[in-house]
Amino acid sequence: MDNSSLTTGGFTLPGEAGYEALTLKLAKKWGADVIRDSDGTQLSDEIIQSDYDIYSTLCLVRADNEWAKANPSKLQQCCVMSQPVTADSDSTTVDLLEGYFKEQLVINTDDNPQDWWQVFDRTTGLEVDKTNWSFDASTGSVTISNTAKWHRYTVNFFCYRIWEEISMYNHVTNDWGDQEHLMPIDPIHPEARDQIRDYLTKWLDAHPHTKVVRLTSMFYNFWWFWGDPAKQKFIVNDWGSYEFSVSTAAILKFEEKFGYRPTSEDFINAGLYNNSYKVPSKLYRDWMDFINEFVVEFGKECIEMIHQRDKLAFVFYNDHWIGIEPYNERFKDFGFDGIIDGIFNGFEARKVAECPAVSVRELRMHPYLFPTGVNGEPSFLPGGKPTDECKRYWTDIRRAILRKGVDRIGFGGYLHLVENHPDFVDYIENLGTEFRQLRSLHHSGAPEELPLKVAFLTAWGNTRAWACCGHFNRGNYYNEAMESLSGLPVETVFISFEDILQGGIDSSINVIINAGLVNDSWSGGEYWSKPETIEAISQFVSTGGGLIGIGEPTALRHSDQYFQLAHILGVDREVGLTRAFNRIEFQTASDHFILADAASTLDLGKTIDNIYLTDDSTVVLSANEKSPAIATRAFDQGRCVYLAGHLYNPANVRLLLRSILWSAQKENLLDHWSCSSIHTECAYYPKSGKLVVINNSDEDQNTTVATPRGTIKLSLQANASKTIDVTP
Amino acid sequence: MDNSSLTTGGFTLPGEAGYEALTLKLAKKWGADVIRDSDGTQLSDEIIQSDYDIYSTLCLVRADNEWAKANPSKLQQCCVMSQPVTADSDSTTVDLLEGYFKEQLVINTDDNPQDWWQVFDRTTGLEVDKTNWSFDASTGSVTISNTAKWHRYTVNFFCYRIWEEISMYNHVTNDWGDQEHLMPIDPIHPEARDQIRDYLTKWLDAHPHTKVVRLTSMFYNFWWFWGDPAKQKFIVNDWGSYEFSVSTAAILKFEEKFGYRPTSEDFINAGLYNNSYKVPSKLYRDWMDFINEFVVEFGKECIEMIHQRDKLAFVFYNDHWIGIEPYNERFKDFGFDGIIDGIFNGFEARKVAECPAVSVRELRMHPYLFPTGVNGEPSFLPGGKPTDECKRYWTDIRRAILRKGVDRIGFGGYLHLVENHPDFVDYIENLGTEFRQLRSLHHSGAPEELPLKVAFLTAWGNTRAWACCGHFNRGNYYNEAMESLSGLPVETVFISFEDILQGGIDSSINVIINAGLVNDSWSGGEYWSKPETIEAISQFVSTGGGLIGIGEPTALRHSDQYFQLAHILGVDREVGLTRAFNRIEFQTASDHFILADAASTLDLGKTIDNIYLTDDSTVVLSANEKSPAIATRAFDQGRCVYLAGHLYNPANVRLLLRSILWSAQKENLLDHWSCSSIHTECAYYPKSGKLVVINNSDEDQNTTVATPRGTIKLSLQANASKTIDVTP
User: Looking at this predicted complex, what is its ipTM?
Assistant: First the structure.
């Protein structure tokens, strides 16, 4: 690919049959080199035979609905917990699908309920003996005998999924009316794998003009239960959860490999399921590994078929991405040529930019060209402001790809929707140029990074590098901090507690960030009861490491403190049982390196309350009444920073950078290619001799850039960037 | 006693030798009938031989310091956890008293440490084998061998207490200089009991003019650790905790009775000790019962000695009150004639007013006549405003004693401090008159109460009726709600989970209030995992009972919900693990009985966040963004109200009253002797035919009183009360 042009290339346009002139006009204006189809659109021969490369979307598990209809026992499944029913007598009937969306789920009656299902008294937490319940297929209900009045009962049962969820979403969102519901087949069955092989062969025959097969994605969608439309449209949506890979067939295959059979309750976990906020159990980690191995094995076979036709295989890092895990070891075995993700934010851009083992990394921008955006905004509906929306996303994305480059950008959806938005059409032309400028600098050589390494410590580690449980989970301290980091000039890695337990803390790490809420996977939950965790991090800080705790870091109801590293952080949290105890009083320090850029009031977002000092050597920099909000402390040769909250905004981005530098004892690095205005950031590309300065705000900004050869003053218009030649 | 005079009687004045004229002048002005001494003051013969009755304070356990000094092994003890020490090698030395106040505690080396002490690795939670530690009496330290680097170690050890804490507080507060430190002896030892008998005999001989022996109080003080003055003055203060009744001798006596020996860790509980916020364990409840039995047994003997001299015995409901437990069954066995407490608030007034088995109930008012008040205010120091202070307390107390009368009020401390405060002297004269008016109405017959019974449900139940863990614990939802209830015309009882488990819910109860934070004794903690608790309350609500939950009611990490009665209350709380789940959307209802008096913004104090609906039948009346703050729901024949917080203030008092009436399905009772202005309240005394209306605010108020015979309009000056004859 040609990476030097600033007007053409690296841009994927969604074409639309019936709008050929528009397609070709915008392809030219936006400098597209690729035209793609989308879910709901087709490319006409006129488009396919134009000079553009063609990406064709392909979702193998919902591709042949006739086969799916003919083989209902080969549909994908999932394990479901019925809504709890309170017993009002000694016999209790549970309507299994009550509250769920009956166009998504049907009860699996093929596999004997008595073999697979479980009934629980959730009041006691005990399983109900199988002799005490029976399933009535005609009513879809389970009747439980000998129930205790006022106890709450649930049934874990298996369902087939009869409407593939992404297609269901697109169908409902775009009012596709009586168009047939597509169903997802499960390649865990050999018959389904055969069908997919056959289908792919025929599909490749039928798409001679396709250059890139854009797989959307492999086999299993992220977890997404819909509700009874009369009550609640959505029940749960978790981009990271493997719950839709669960089926009776997969469980049997797992049993063959691991020697034991997971129960339904292993997937239900008293209604928590295995959601991304739950610290993953050993069983669930094994399950993920098992699915990953399977998806890579069969996925590799499909990709080889594509390669044999001299086509490239790109994968969409979303939708049916479960089991792909680009940051895991096996990913390289797929042989993918490229990866694409639909993103809104900086951290998601980094997730794509740092994806290993592919040649092409592409960002699908938002707003998606649907009337209603993926995040619910009325993008192309009356009242929608697609240009403002796009500018907002691009501002956050741009600061991330200033640090790590990507190869392409693009859009998806119905192209004709842009017709009435000439400002959007012009804006995207300019955005494309700005993107190509950055891309070209990266291709010449990486920008300078500060010589320090920051590690996020969570229960997920690198498996959720630059990821959380979907798009930006606002209010999640880990996600907020990750978004702030995504545009900072520091090396960022992601480590798990299992990494530490198995291999200790890599000596190259300067600062560890632990950000989350008690018991959640981001904070670490039960891992904080393991002495090895405490030992490793104590040793790390003691010998000069930096520790930044955000929210409820190291928190667990265990031992004589709540933050398990309270004695190192210098703060702990009152959680209601120690209110009789007096606390050390403190004065707020007026002057500290990490607050040097801060305005008089910092907005840390929603902060954790009832923080108190465990030691009078803790220095409080900011407090909400008597509860410290920002505190620092030295521990042996190391340094800690506690932040009671974090919200991605310019002031907090700077606060976090300064916290990293201070805790790493590298304060002097702040004078290294940094901007005086917190609304501006910059990157220096030594190979090109170029300095890029960006204005992240909607207002004009003056800023002074500190460089090794003195300062550079400059003005930037709202949202603008400037590239300056600073060759020595 | 003469209860009819409005100018004299029912008033206890603190006399002061050297200020005889002032004493007698104020006794007359304030209408005192009793003169008392205080800690730090004495009465001269001139005062003693005046016409006033004499109360003499007596604290038996600190009365004879010579005996205490001669018998150091008979001093009171306690069990202490050393401050945690982080191991930096395989040998770790713990300075036991580091951080504690060495004028309060000395290490008990008389009882073999190896028999009594325990060392813990708090990082693992495991006890260190006794062969791995040794005590060095010369340095007061324990050295632990084979310690794991970075683990945290603590030692549970026994101390003698060498400075009786109340005397210590008065000494330090009033700069008593080199006056000898008084030491508390422990009547658990037969020798100490003999000494107390001897002392009391001699004391009674020496006090022929004393009419009332005011015991302060019996033997064991509430729990109060002081800290190293250089670091932290106070460590912990818990009015309800029995930790200062713990000693090696008492443990042996307990073992004789119960057949097993509590360990030091039973009293330390990983640093939580047995504080009032902790749900009491079975062992701790047994311990309280054991101490209570002992205190009643020996206390009764002392009181009989007093009675034999034709004196009365009054007890102070504070200081060394541990083991007295006026609300327990045994209290009547003491034979006390009266009870006195030093109080600031309405709930404390009710605690005294409803004390069973005594003839006289007396409130000691604040500010205490010390330069610095007991709550830290500069009462009689320059800048102090004792009149404003007293008016504030009296306003809260008055609304409580409007409902339940007491017999006396009084003050304590140094009388001469009022000399420079003529406004205070005048204010107290008026306050005395107002008090006597209320007293006289009560003596004629009780005021009307609404025909409904409200029960606070906590782990403490009636043992902490009208009490929490000291004076007003602001922010504690149970305490805030109790203060609001203290002035409402409803019958209020206090029940425990053990009451429910053993005897169910009394059918006379209309409404149950559960208010607290997860795991704490007020909310109930682990009791919510007991099916019997769930069953009993479900049945209660189902058959028409009302349930009011405040804060984190019924909360526990157990089952598939966090509020264990979420399915009844209609709300639950997100605690970080279920963020992937969508929630039911709601509209805020604009019109509801319980909000009819509410201003546009209610201040519920600090509220619990992340509340969500579990059911679409829940009606949300107020919300903080997406988190309901006030919600109501019907469950079968019963009704529930959820309040995300509660703060004692006029609007919330009315809100709570309305919540009670609504949940009890007795809304019509609101028209029964109620005031239109939320700043005013009233009580009707049918025997006297009098209506008393009080203005709780610092501003004049107009109010309309609903009576069975129509409305009465009236105006009240700031803080004033009016008594109106409404005889039919």
Answer: 0.95
